[in-house]
Write a structure and sequence with these properties.
Shape: globular
Strand content: 35-45%
Number of helices: 8
Helix content: 10-25%
Distance between the termini: 23 Å
Number of strands: 45
Oligomer: single chain
Largest sheet: 6 strands, mixed
């Protein structure tokens, strides 16, 4: 079995049109990879030297090779060598790692953290790498707590929650059990059992799995039960205890039509959310004239009149109900009976009125620590996925202090912020940790809600006399909406003259590669300052919507002080636009390639879409002269960038660390170093001439880029590269398959590359050795996205 990272290792080591391919692949791309390491496993994923809990590393060889096994820390340093070069025949070999400095049980423990155990197989002929595998292991000296064997019965659902006995199929009961247990499932009316499911009577030991059954409304005697609401009770019992759950189900009328009232239907027929769906459609037929016709909705003692008509004629009827009562107020959630009465005959159907539960999708504070004695503040920033009523409360431990926001109507998918100045109703709180709790309730039913809590520390902001302390730093606004303003201002104060650095980063952490450096150690006097910024990155492109962080550093005689904070670029939930339709941005068109770059007028409409998409996603950016250069070749460094940016949601980029990573032909401060360091961390980047040259300026060909992009998809998503016996390309041999044969098969299946058609022969060519261009790279990544290969 080929390893994903082995393939990636090969991919980047061949990112040059003149590359000498690693792992036994000869120059020019001929040859094949033989499986040497069939598996690498560890017996324990967490090592605890304090408890003498080690892990056994098992390396299984399929072919004779020289083996090297070692352990790396997070800084890529070798901390332990488990096996040096030695020729081993096929079989499984085991090595013990204790997590100590000398790899001796009871020795000095290494630092806590994540370590990587790597194994390489070398050719016994020429010493080249022929296979590669790795596993990650956590070292934890705090001690392992054995998992508690807790029996858990979960996920009990009854769907639909109401049905008409004798007319509908019934309700499906489902639940999960996480351990083998004796399972009991009953339907009860009050405390009386009306239905005991024979195979789930608590007497048979069942396995841990999901279970499902249907109740048709009949009791244990085989008769239909009376109309009403019943309780489904499910329990599981074993040596670890008992767990149980209950759910409700309503049984309606045994008939939905009479001789007088026919074809009675509801649409929707089961669950209905009046705030999200259209009105409830009620349709039926009267087969004769009647003196009185009424249609009502009933729940308990509550009745809503829908139709009240005298002398109704024989006809088909269609009526709607908007889910409000006679006063125009929204009715409560639950099972409602829709009852039709024509003279002396009555029929009913049931509908479950449900309300959407608001989900708080984002919640964080702009500053995790403030000093309230000098007037510092933080902002709680949040977003909810549906219209809701929001309250924000301040807690000291379990004690509620005050409300910062009460019953505020918010609009879905907009950003809101609530400021806290470290006071409780005007009085400064003591130093310590506090909690800001958000509650988002359904607009109609306050029993349907979501909560989220964020912690803030109140602490005195002090520093040594040799540093320039940064205080009162924040952004204005906290949520930047380009529909409301052109600039964002970063404000801060420093208490000593200092050199000041200010940079913007993507995400919740002020680390990694910068979006833009606003100040690069600029001399500033003590006092308060402002930096006005147009919210564009280093390439003069507007930042995409999302969460960003800023980092402020002051330097005095080489001694530095750092402060960080957060802000948002996106759709601000302000009162000026909260009354708009739900989808405020429906008329906002995305950036189009023709309006962004001057040199793309001749590309195809699909390539224009691809360039637009890769630009909006931050995968590609144009040049300072306003060009995209779709026909320019792409080199090794650019390949690292665009592929990692395409999978940025799947893999975290590591910041450059100021080193050359062992390459003598790179700039340690080059823009590409964060991608290079990430690639090296994942074993994807190998150089030339004993790993000393990266050759990032070398261009790559179509086959090489295809391999790298597809192996990244294989490594970072659930998709796996399939094997292919044939392709439709005339220049990709099926009889003597080349190293890129399967990748060409994927390109053929998903039409990832535009191909070349020869009129005379009527054959299609891939041209795998042709240097790849920026435009077709954008197109390939876009087609991978459309085919789900990026996620």
């Amino acid at each position: 079995m080929m390893k994903k990272l082995l393939s990636l290792l090969v991919a980047v080591s061949m990112l040059s049109s003149t590359a000498a391919y690693a792992v036994g692949i000869a120059d020019g791309g001929s040859g094949s990879v033989t499986d040497y390491i069939s598996s690498l496993t560890v017996s324990r994923e967490t090592v605890n030297p304090a408890q003498n809990l080690s892990t056994t590393v098992n390396v299984s060889l399929a072919n004779t090779a020289s083996i090297y096994v070692y352990v790396l820390n997070a800084s890529f340093d070798v901390v332990t060598t488990l096996k040096t070069n030695g020729i081993l025949t096929p079989g499984t070999y085991s090595y013990e790692w204790n997590g100590t400095v000398s790899n001796i049980a009871g020795g000095t423990a290494l630092s806590d953290g994540t370590y990587t155990i790597r194994a390489f197989a070398y050719s016994t002929v020429d010493g080249s790498v022929v296979d590669y595998a790795y596993q990650r292991v956590t070292l934890d000296n705090e001690g392992l707590i054995p998992p508690v064997a807790t029996l858990d019965l979960s996920g009990l659902t009854v769907s639909p929650s109401s049905f008409v006995a004798g007319q509908d199929t019934g309700s499906t009961i489902t639940f999960n059990v996480n351990q083998a247990a004796y399972v009991d499932v009953e339907v009860r009316s009050g405390s009386t059992v009306v239905k005991q499911f024979a195979n789930y009577n608590g007497s048979t030991l069942l396995s841990n799995t999901s279970y499902s059954m249907v109740w048709d409304g009949k009791n244990d005697s085989g008769s239909y039960v009376s109309n009403g609401t019943y309780t489904v009770y499910a329990s599981a019992t074993n040596s670890n205890g008992t767990d149980s759950m209950t759910a409700s189900v309503t049984v309606g009328s045994t008939s939905t039509s009479s001789d007088l009232i026919k074809n009675f239907t509801l649409n929707p027929s089961s669950n209905w959310d009046p705030s999200e769906d259209d009105e409830l459609e009620i349709e039926f037929e009267l087969t004769d004239d009647v003196e009185d016709l009424t249609v009502v909705a009933k729940k308990g003692s509550k009745t809503v009149e829908i139709i009240d008509e005298e002398d109704a004629s024989e006809d088909d009827y269609s009526e709607t109900w908007d889910g409000t009562d006679d006063d125009g107020d929204d009715v409560e959630t639950g099972t409602w009976e829709i009852r039709i009465t024509a003279d002396d005959e009555t029929v009913s159907r049931y509908i479950d009125i449900v309300r959407e539960k608001p989900e708080i999708t984002e919640a964080f504070v702009t500053k995790t620590s403030i000093d309230n004695e000098i007037g510092e503040v933080t902002n709680l920033v949040f977003k909810v996925d549906s219209d809701a009523v929001v309250t924000v409360e301040l807690y000291d431990g379990s004690k509620r202090l005050s409300k910062l926001l009460e019953d505020e109507d918010v609009v879905k998918n907009k950003w809101y912020s609530v400021e806290w100045d470290g006071t409780d109703e005007g009085d400064e709180v003591d130093e310590g940790s506090y909690t800001l709790k958000i509650t988002a309730e359904n607009e109609v039913d306050d029993d349907i809600y979501d909560t989220e809590s964020v912690n803030v520390t109140v602490d005195e902001d002090t520093t040594s006399s040799s540093k320039s302390n940064i205080t009162n730093d924040y952004t204005a606004p906290v949520v930047f909406d380009d529909k409301e303003g052109e600039y964002l201002t970063v404000k801060y104060c420093i208490d000593e003259d200092a050199e000041v650095f200010l940079a913007i980063y993507k995400g919740m952490s002020a680390s990694g590669s910068t979006e833009i450096e606003l100040m690069d150690y600029v001399d500033q006097n003590d006092g308060c300052h402002e930096v006005k910024w147009n919210v564009e990155d280093d390439n003069d492109k507007a930042l995409k919507d999302g969460v960003y962080s800023y980092k402020l550093i002051t330097s005095v005689d080489g001694k530095k002080e750092t402060e960080t904070g957060r802000f948002v670029v996106g759709n601000a939930g302000n009162s000026s636009d909260d009354d708009d339709d739900d989808d405020d941005n429906d008329d906002v068109q995305p950036v189009k390639c023709g309006s962004t770059y001057y040199d793309v007028t001749g590309v195809s409409p699909e390539m224009c879409e691809a360039i637009t998409w890769t630009t909006n996603e931050g995968i590609f950016s144009g040049y300072s002269d306003g060009s995209f250069r779709p026909y320019q070749n792409i080199n090794r460094a650019e390949t690292l960038k665009v592929v990692f940016e395409a999978f940025r949601d799947k893999v975290a980029l590591l910041p450059a660390n100021g080193s050359t990573l062992g390459f003598k032909d790179v700039n340690p401060d080059g823009w590409y170093m964060t991608y290079a360091r990430t690639a090296k961390f994942y074993g994807m980047l190998h150089g030339y001439i004993n790993e000393t040259e990266a050759r990032f300026s070398n261009n790559i060909n179509r086959a090489e880029f295809l391999k790298f992009a597809l192996e990244a998809s294989d490594a970072f998503t659930a998709w796996e590269i399939p094997g292919f016996e044939t392709t439709s390309y005339a220049d990709v041999s099926d009889t003597t398959p080349s190293w890129y044969h399967d990748y060409a098969g994927v390109a053929d299946t998903y039409n990832l590359y535009n191909t070349y058609y020869d009129v005379e022969s009527g054959r299609v060519f891939l041209r795998p050795g042709q240097l790849v261009q920026r435009g077709e790279v954008a197109l390939l990544l876009y087609r991978m996205y459309l085919n789900g290969l990026l996620n």
